[in-house]
Amino acid sequence: MKRQLPLKCFICIWQLIEFKIEVYPVEIFLCLHSNMENVVTAQFSHTIQKVMMKQFDVVEGAETRLWMKSSDTCCERLRNVNVNVLDSSLSSGMTVIMEMRNEDGTWPSSRPQIIRNSVEEQESYRGQPGVCGLTNLGNTCFMNSALQCLSNTPPLTEYFLQSAYLEELNFTNPLGMKGEIAEAYADVIKQMWSGRHYSVVPRLFKTKVGHFASQFLGYQQHDSQELLSFLLDGLHEDLNRVKNKEYIELRDADGRPDQEVAEEAWHNHQRRNNSVIVDTFHGLFKSTLVCPECRKVSVTFDPFCYLSVPLPVSKDRVMEVFFVYLDPVAKPVQHRLVVPKAGKVFDLCSALSEMTNVSVNQMVVADVFNHRFYKIYHADESLSCILDRDDIFVYELSSGSVEEEEGDEVVLALYLRERSHYRDSGSGSSSCGTSLFGHPLLMAVPRVQCSRNALYHLFLQRLQQPCHTEEEEEKGECPPQTNERQAKRKGYQARRRKLLFSIHAVNSNGTTERGMGEDGSAFSFSSQPYVAIDWDPDMKKKCYNENEAEKYVKHQSMEVPHQQTTVQLQECIELFTTVEILEEENPWYCPICKKHQLATKKLDLWSLPEVLIIHLKRFSYTKYSREKLDIIVDFPLRLVISCLSFTPPSRYDLIAVSNHYGGLRDGHYTSYARNKDNGQWYYFDDNKVTYAREEQIVTNAAYLLFYHRQDKIRQPTLPPPSDSSSSPTQPANVTSHKHDGMERAISCVNMETD
């Protein structure tokens, strides 16, 4: 049986350990980064930073950081300067180097690479603090946009500029990043607000983000809201004042007053989460769930960091298509259609049928890209497969050819190619290549007319509009336009004449030729057949009019202005607080019914934070569609919003906006932000910064809105720039300027890794 030591023994052992530390202090070498020749030897066992600052007469309040050097080349950051010598893994003989932050926000050890016009400019540039661009490292505009919005959030920026974060770095939080994200963010902010740089290169920050969040590794385009969410959470955990999080069992309201339950929820939240991020950005939701069976009501209060509000989604969408008539003389017609957003390709054809009086059964819809068919759609396919930027062509075919796959007719996909002859420089032999041009066609051809000669005449008739057949007929270089009976009778004459083009079976890309039968024999088509007609360059120039082939006419539906939908921000917030039924994938367990239920859920705003971030959910993902909503959300620059906590309505001022231009697959992020010191609005586009007016800010690109509560706003201490009102689009003096006909180089700071 093990014998347990009494409490007094543990106390004595601890005292002996303390006594041993005092008796055997560690001897280390101290020096400054700016003067590494001046090395001082010291023996102590407590914190190093205060000793070094006193030893080297460092001004109190100066921001410093320490490096441990164990060899001539190896240096490691001593991040937690408040631990004692033994806890920091320092041993005798090691050197500790102290460096002080430069006035421009950089560190001497970062080896900044400054790109400016002259040596004098490196030291002489003085700009408005905070009005500083961020260099795009490669698809990092999403990160730059989010950083600019946060940089112009006064309470958070002042917290870092005043170095208050140094006393609150949490190095032991298992949910945090050992303080590294907070330090990397502080470096960016201090450089941007030093007034010494046109633009900063946030390379170290990007590296740290990718290290702790693998989804941001590399240089793919991402979502600024996702980056913002990660950054706020990372900063919170790195700066969490709660060192040891206690387990807290959540309680249901059980009929208690809302005020009591809300105060309890907020108190419990702060027992585990207490940081500048909570102080600035966190508010409280009231969540109400009602069981549809027993009517049990469950009320909880949950913290939030931002509001993700839905946009009113229309059930219809507007699509633009080109209709290609069966008549070869008729030009394609561009139509604008209104179709169900969750509809099928059949619905598109139905809407087009009403405008053209052509039966739906005679239509085939295809996506044309780069002179070939990217996709040929079936009638039962979802319209969500078609993007707004796709070039959609609808072809009229002969009656019955669309529905009967094994009928008397086969639908051919026809490509146009131009042959080119070139000589191989290595072997000296001549080779032949092809390149696609023009718009492809879809044709219904009788299966009995799939011979080379018959197809030639059918294709020639189909290309009647862009081809000059009469003048060639006169010179005997091509056969006249004939019907099938005449073609059979005069087939031997056609072979004697020079043909306009040759016919080849190809794959869907129009590039790989497949085998074909002897001259005059029929093609064998087992699946969707693709055929190319190849033109000799000289013959194409004589007989094919590309300009004529590209012409189209606009239907009157295209003349009706497409009015862009505008909604008010208040509508989005009201939609966010609307009662909804839980989805089947996310049911609620009812404690009364003892089973999962699809309960009704309602969210209400109980209390609001000092800085309110509103995320406009422009990217819509449903079972039926994936799209970006480009509707204009008319958001006010002065927002009044009410909540349920029996307090007066909160009044906010807009301070920043993150914008997204483009669609689902690609796009570009920028931002508008109001400088806290001079009150001027600026437009940030990566490393470019220009003046902006308030009336320019509301656009259909707005994605993230930052509002600051009016009772917390500090009035600007500087007057606005004198030329900002008279020349709002003129680049500010912190961006690239024109000088002697040449664009001036942009000042950049390259933040290297530790």
From TrEMBL:
Reaction equations catalysed: Thiol-dependent hydrolysis of ester, thioester, amide, peptide and isopeptide bonds formed by the C-terminal Gly of ubiquitin (a 76-residue protein attached to proteins as an intracellular targeting signal)
A matching Pfam family: UCH
Q: Which EC number(s) are documented for this chain?
A: 3.4.19.12
Keyword Secreted: yes or no? no
Q: Which UniProt keywords apply?
A: Cytoplasm, Hydrolase, Nucleus, Protease, Thiol protease, Ubl conjugation pathway
Using the UniProt record, give the first listed, main subcellular location.
cytoplasm
Region Disordered: start and end of each range?
Answer: 715-741
Ranges for domain USP come to 132-710
Q: GO molecular-function annotation terms?
A: cysteine-type deubiquitinase activity
Compartmental location: Cytoplasm; Nucleus
Gene Ontology biological process terms from the UniProt entry:
protein deubiquitination; proteolysis
Instruction: Provide GO CC annotations from the record.
Output: cytoplasm; nucleus
Keyword Repeat included in the entry's annotation: no
Family in the record? Belongs to the peptidase C19 family.
Q: What is this protein called?
A: Ubiquitin carboxyl-terminal hydrolase
- From which source organism is this entry? Oncorhynchus tshawytscha
The UniProt gene name for this protein comes to USP11
